[in-house]
Amino acid sequence: MTLRVTGLGHRFGLADVLADIDLELPAGESVALVGPSGCGKTTLLNLIAGLERPSAGRIDNGYARPACVFQQPRLLPWQTALDNIALGLKAVGVARRERERRAATMGLRLGLANADLDKFPHQLSGGMQSRVALARAFVLEPDLLLLDEPFSALDVGLKAELYALLLGEIAARRASLLTITHDLMEAVRLSDRILMMAPAPGRIVGEYRLDRPRGQRDDGWIYRTTAAFMDEPAVRAGFGLPGQQAGGSVVALASAAAGRAKDRP
User: What is the rounded distance in angstroms from the CA atom of residue 31 to the CA atom of residue 33?
Assistant: First the structure.
């Protein structure tokens, strides 16, 4: 199973928003697309998810069961948390009793209480809504999970808890992960490979591989690696930051912390 994007371009009207995007995501790998607002990250994810059709290039998605989690939970307000989690199962024809059983099991696994499953979205906190959205994706047993910054509005402690749940689920299922974020620390925490995007039009300007296993990354390593990324010229240019700061590069850090980096021209 592999996702391949080749020569992808997209435009809205006369404006080019993506150009010459090439990426590959093999089975079991986690890739993060990072970049500033307006560089086309969400558009690229929507194209990969099949929610829009590209203006140029091609997408070959060999995964059988992709699932998306969006920046907003996008829960149906007239449905309980349980029914929102079971929504995808209903769409594929799973019988009511079975889908409710699976939805309840997944909701409890992601930290929801039995009482929460009977609540409507407006009765849930933002963190609980995020758990429902993740459970709705996980219950489908996806082989490819597409994330559009679902943790951006959450506090640090809740993010850490949901990161652990996410990494546990994808490891257990050997699922692939493609996440988009403007948060470099999140990318370092979750991914095996980071692709740096720049705007006008959106394009990939750098590729960095992290060889330390996701489960072995302590906070100190994550902080140091994130700081090193901030020194990379392609990263600083992509985020519109002034010249490169003094300090170790990602390549230098990688040799000491089990990672390596490669810039594209």
Answer: 7
Render pLDDT for 146-165 as a digit per residue (tens, 0 to 9): 999 888 878 888 888 889 88
Summarize the confidence of residues 172-176 as an average pLDDT: 91
Helices 96-109, 126-138: crossing angle, 10 deg rounding: 130
Please name the amino acid found at residue 109: R
User: Does 107 score more than 90 pLDDT?
Assistant: yes
How far is the C-alpha of 128 from the C-alpha of 80, rounded, in Å? 12
Dmax of the chain from CA atoms? Answer: 60
Stated pTM of the model: 0.88
Cα 226 to Cα 182: distance, rounded to the nearest angstrom: 12
Q: For tokens 């829960």, what's the residue? A: 75
| Cα–Cα dist 185/260, whole Å | 16
Between vectors from CA 188 to CA 182 and to CA 191, what angle results, nearest 5°? 95
